[in-house]
Structure formats: structure tokens, C-alpha cells
Give the backbone structure.
Amino acid sequence: MNILLTGGAGYIGSHTAIALAESGHSVFAADNFSNSSPEAIRRVSELSGQRISCFDMDIRNTPMLADILLRKEIQCVIHFAGYKAVGESLTKPLLYYDNNIATTVSLLAAMEEAGVSRLIFSSSASVYGEDAPSPISEEAGIGGCTNPYSRTKAICEQIIQDAAASSPVGLQAVLLRYFNPIGAHPSGMIGENPHGIPNNLMPYITQVAAGILPELTIFGGDYDTPDGTCLRDFIHVMDLAEAHAQAVEYLSRAASSNTDVPTVVPINIGTGTPYSVLDVVKTFSDVNGFPIPYHIGARRDGDIPALYADVSRAEQLLHWHATRSLADMCRDAWTWQRKNPEGYWLR
Ligand code: NAD
Ligand code: UDP
């Protein structure tokens, strides 16, 4: 199948491109490189053995997008493009509402124009309200979000629901609610490429490991959890990438099914197993053979004590579950950092 990845040069898009190429799909990307480098696409082409075309464009350019969908005979789109920094979304909410929502509206309009009916959307576990108890199922309410970034995801989910309900092309969508993707392709050729000081746990740890940052601050050691630090559902980015390939298969089955299938399906993508922040630090040290200096600091505003997935729907509908361990995640994250101390060559 011909598949377009918006934001395909980014962290999750680049790993997904490899999983899709390995499943025999023809992969195209569209990215404005606002948070990525063309070097990622070059390396994905090298790793996958498929020359990936990447259109240097803003997804808000609807006519150009519709033209690409038609010319490349795209049958399915995976929409990764958007901004993702929670903290920045609090200081620049309009930037986030503009980019995350306008790209989604533009994409839906272009798909309608070009007659493309299959969509996979990068959503987030952060659409669930603060008070939802873990393990969280997709039946839990969404929208009680603590920051503008998460609200853009909840709003986009609603926009996709509304577009599907009135779609002239029979839009079918899967909303993948990612938990905490970490790690990298085991080759260490592609990985997460944060600008400046990382906000997220694993890139912070790898930069401490590399000596770029002096020590990790663990945000809060007095939560009501087994070791006092927060619990999260960390998932290897290659497991996450493979979930997208399974979602493409799911949409194909849905299109050829005689029975009624829902037009828009939210699906949690995690391992279902919670690990604490301290578990991650200790596993990283054990698997890579050196300590990570850390201290316990104050809680970070907005952090939920425990957030992990009920993954039964992913198993049932996608025939998928995560197979890689926390040790795999920690080893592969360090391989990427070690081989690419400055990330990609940013242009
Ligand atoms: P990323 O920043 O690495 O990738 C996003 C890509 O989109 C980048 O290459 C960026 O250049 C591109 N982009 C942004 N705005 C664009 C625009 N207007 N036009 C064209 N390209 C544009 O982020 P990621 O970690 O790969 O995340 C991918 C998606 O998954 C995002 O939508 C993110 O919100 C979502 N998500 C990520 C995580 C996570 O922890 N990484 C968790 C939940 C959800
Ligand atoms: N965290 C931490 N120190 C850091 C970064 C993150 O202790 O420098 C903790 C954070 O408080 C949370 C967990 O690690 O409990 C995961 O945070 P991250 O920002 O990676 O993802 P989130 O779950 O917030 O989306």
C-alpha cells in the first residue's frame, strides 16, 4: 500500500517508516523539518533499503497536500506532524492550537479532495483526564487535560470524529493513544533528537550518561507509589512503530468487512506494565554498566502519579502487543545517544 507519513522525519515517524517498509508498504513522508532533519529520512532509506521520498512542506498547505495524495496514489495517511512539548504549550498555546489543529483540518480536507479514506492519528494518553484510574481503558472519558498540548490532541480526536460522521469518502480512522515511547532503533542510526535541554525522562538520562548534563532530577519521591516516584507505561519506539503497521492492516480489514465496524476507533498503545522513574534509572545503569547520578527534587506541576494502559483493545483489534523489555529500551536509547552525541546534523 502507498502510505504518507506527515511528520515522517520525526522521532516516531522515522521508526514507523522502517516498520512499514519491512511490512512491504511504499512509504512517503511530508515534513517541514521544524523539529527534525532530512538526515533522518536518509538514514531510514539506508536502513530499510527503500528510497523514501520526503516532501519539504507545511501540512497546512492543503492544495499541495491534496496534489501529493493524488499523484502518489496514497491509500492511507499516518498523521504525526505537530508540536509535542507540554511545557512550551503552556507558554505558547496559540502556536500549539494553530499547528496541531490546523494541520489536522488541512489533512482531512486534502484527504476528502483526493478521495483518501484511511487515517491513523497520533494521539496521546494525556487526553485522559487527570483523575482517570490506571490501567486506563479507551472507555474512560477524555478532555480533562492539564495543558494546551493535550487539549489539541483531544480536540483533534473530536474533529476526526465529526469529519468521519459526515465524510463523503467514507473516512475510517484509528486514534492511537501513545503512552511513553522511549528507546531507538537497535542500530543506533535513528532516534529521538530533542532541541536544547530535554524535558522528557529518557533523553535527559542519556544526556546525563553522555556527560552533557551533570545529573538527573527526579521530580518527586513522595508519591503514593511503591518507591515514591511516578509510574508510567514506557514503550519501545519500535514496538510502537509496529503497532502502526498493524493499524494499517486493521483499516484494510475494516474496509473489506461486511459487518458494521466503527468508523473511528481509539486504541491505547502501551505495554500495560507500569515502571517507576527509579526503575528506569536503575535498569539503565544495570544494562549499560555505569551509574546515573540523580537526586530527588520537587514534584513537577501537572504530573499524574500513575498512568498506564489497559491494552486489551490493541490485542483484540490490532492483534498486537509490545514485545520489547525496559532493558531493551534503555540499551537502545544509549546506543543512539552514544553514536550520535549531537543528534542529527540540524540544518
Ligand atoms: P517529532 O517532533 O519528533 O515529530 C513531529 C514531526 O512533525 C517533526 O519532524 C516536525 O518537523 C514535523 N512537523 C511539525 N509541524 C509540522 C507542519 N506544520 N508541517 C509539516 N511537518 C511538521 O515528534 P514525535 O515524538 O515523533 O511525535 C509524533 C506525534 O506523536 C506528534 O503528533 C506527537 O504529539 C505525538 N505523540 C508523541 C509522544 C512522544 O512521547 N514522543 C507521545 C504521545 C503522542
Ligand atoms: N521525569 C523526571 N525527571 C526529568 C524528566 C521526567 O523525574 O528530568 C519524570 C516525570 O516527572 C514523570 C516521568 O519522568 O513522572 C515521565 O516524564 P516524561 O516527561 O518523560 O513523560 P510524561 O509522562 O510527562 O509524558
